[in-house]
Amino acid sequence: MRKLITRVGLLLTSLVFIAGCQTTDKVEKVRVAEVTRSLFYTPQYVAIEKGFFKEEGLDIELTTTWGGDKTMTTLLSDGADIALVGSETSIYVYAQNPIDPVINFAQLTQTDGTFLVSREKVDDFKWEDLKGTTFLGQRKGGMPQMAGEFVLRKNGIDPFADLELIQNIDFANIATAFSTGTGDYVQLFEPTASLFEEQGIGHIVASFGTESGLLPYTTFMSKESYLKENKETVEKFTRALQKAQKFVDTASLEELAVLVQPYFEDTELDLMETVIDRYRAQGSFATDPILDEAEWNNLQTIMDQAGELPQQVDHETLVNTDFAKSAK
């Protein structure tokens, strides 16, 4: 009888141990929709490749949805759990009085990510050089274009009177349009800007990121209901992101380029190092996931000046910093 009790006790202990292991090893899938594929999002790819999400028990299913409207539609229709997109999209959604608003919970980038590229080499560039030229900007209503207009006005240029502003070309075709002869200047993301400079197509003369100041340019967001029903998951997600942000802030350019290469197979490592260095040097990568009130207000100022702000929205209405502060 004593032996039987001992065996039963050992069996129960084993079952408890196995159950505990199964709970610990359980992996939860999280579907993330990113607005575009860009080296601007290096910390996200590092979090995946370094296994920071995996350490938290998360399996990230990453989909590129190519455009803010498509990304938000994917999130709202439950095609994704989390979206990586500009914070302005959450304001657009809120203006429609949704039952389940979209909430920003972790910031990835904190500046604009575009650069001003000149067709001709310009020595000692000044913003006033743009007057009387043809400027190939970004899509109207999008954050890149709004930030672009904000920077022009800041430097004494009326984007609709002092130059010829072209903003009716699809995002995917802007670089091609410039390379085939459209525009004296163009607003471009990396790595295209550096690639054009490398190929002699254009020359980087200024950064919209350094000129427009800190703002929640790209953040992770989700529906309010998802945050409430999956609090632990979002906490794990944000912790993994913070680990990646710290890593990106101190790691070598060579190591970072190798880590993100699977997402940019057609881009040379040297070029990726140049791009990552440029973004990191100007402070584009947020070093923690907290979206603060000053950044939020700067975003709305830029939107308002562009005539695209449907209504003022308080920081606490569409931003939840609890997860980010806990992770930090």
Automatic annotation (TrEMBL):
Locations listed in the record: Periplasm
Provide this UniProt record's keywords sorted from A to Z.
Answer: Signal
Query: Where on the tree of life does the source sit, at the highest rank?
Result: Bacteria
Q: Does the keyword Signal apply?
A: yes
Entries under Pfam families matching the protein:
NMT1
Q: Give me the Gene Ontology terms describing cellular component.
A: periplasmic space
Q: Where is the SsuA/THI5-like domain?
A: 42-247
What is the protein name stated in its UniProt record? ABC transporter substrate-binding protein
Which positions carry the signal peptide feature in this UniProt record?
Answer: 1-19
Q: Which family does it belong to?
A: Belongs to the bacterial solute-binding protein SsuA/TauA family.
